[in-house]
Amino acid sequence: xxGIENTDRVGLDRxxxxxxxxxxxxxxxxxxxxELRRLREQLGLSQAQVAKAMGRHQTVVSTLETxxxxxxxxxxxxxxxxxxxxxxxxxxxxxxxxxxxxRELRDCDNETQxxxxxxxxxxxxxxxxxxxxxxxxxxx
Length: 140
Hints:
Elements: H1 17-42, H2 47-54, H3 58-65, H4 73-83, H5 97-138
Helix pairs in contact: 1-4, 2-3, 2-4
């Protein structure tokens, strides 16, 4: 299986953690489809047989197995089901991005704390004004 490796031709900066993650994810997707295709072949099933089990036309299977296609998850699940397998998900935090995410969460948390401080001040001022107004009317 040929993955997405030569990114210099299209000007992608592999040192950018977001670009590196997208490239890695695309390669994982390609590997998944390639692994399903290899399993189909090992089971001795034709594209037409898998398509029939999926309730789809053979061209759907052909397109799904084509390198660079962007199949729908529902099609991938049907394909896997036709082979008698289940796809499991695993989420991994990527190095470099974890630092970036932590920084963004810290920034977000600081903004949230700042917003919470403003809200708290406004509530305190409002309560103080209500107490003052209540005290003023009680003395009359």
